[in-house]
Input
Amino acid sequence: MSGPVVGFVGLGNMGGALAANLVRAGFEVLAYDCAGPARTPLGARWAPGPADLARGTDVVVLSLPDGTVCEQVVRDLTAIRDRRVTHVVDTSTVGVSAARRLAAIGPAYVDAPVSGGAAGARKRTLMVMYAGTDADCAYVEPVLAGLSDRRRRVGERPGQAQALKLANNFLSATALAATSEAVAFGTSAGLDPAVMLEVLDASSGRSGATADKFPDEVLTGRYASGFSNTLMAKDVRLYLREVAGLGGASAVAEVTETVWGAFAAADPGADFTRIYPFTVGASESPSSTDSTSRTTSG
Output
């Protein structure tokens, strides 16, 4: 297909899958990751650094761990005087305030966080929620379509999509922690956890945890969703910070942050679905988590 040349920064679990989607959609993709070229998707070209992306692409997509890293990359792109890049699509979870700062730095900025995990990215069922001006969103729409088949514009100002993503991750974190406690309670009373989940999923206790996380990752013992407890703890902290800035209610979020902060401190980098054995104090200690359960950003 004809269209903009796309740069991609951050080739972790999520970013690698998204960059591969763009290649399969027919885009010319120039990719960079601070870990080196090994993660470059088949069909993409490796870029030695952000300056190469600034000069050689029209749109740069970011999939990075936090706002600090995103800001450094955007500043690096902006610093190139003969830059070609005109738009940045940020799929990272950076928070409302950071998105607003990023929008003020240089190239046109479309706030476009994603939800659905690395598996959702590979299946193109990932939800891309995005916000930006009419003109900016229209320009990057082909790139957004290359990322996933599920997209929804949620606002006209960068930061609005971040607000929705943080609300989503707060709900996800709370549901997974609460479901872990509920399943632990049921099994201690002699219930079969598979039967519990079947009934919960057909009842008012249904959530993403009962529908996906527990059946796919916990009951199978896979614990390989591709998203880390460290990143989830970061997202809940971000949510609390933004809520505090708006003077909103945060009683439940404060408890959720405590739970995820403790889990991340006990076993940093573990797959976030391992909150179940952490919650019940299973015989498998956090320190025994194998390397396949470790996750990286993006």
User: Anything to note?
Assistant: The two ends are 26 Å apart (CA to CA). Confidence is low (pLDDT under 50) at residues 282-298. The chain has twelve helices and nine strands.
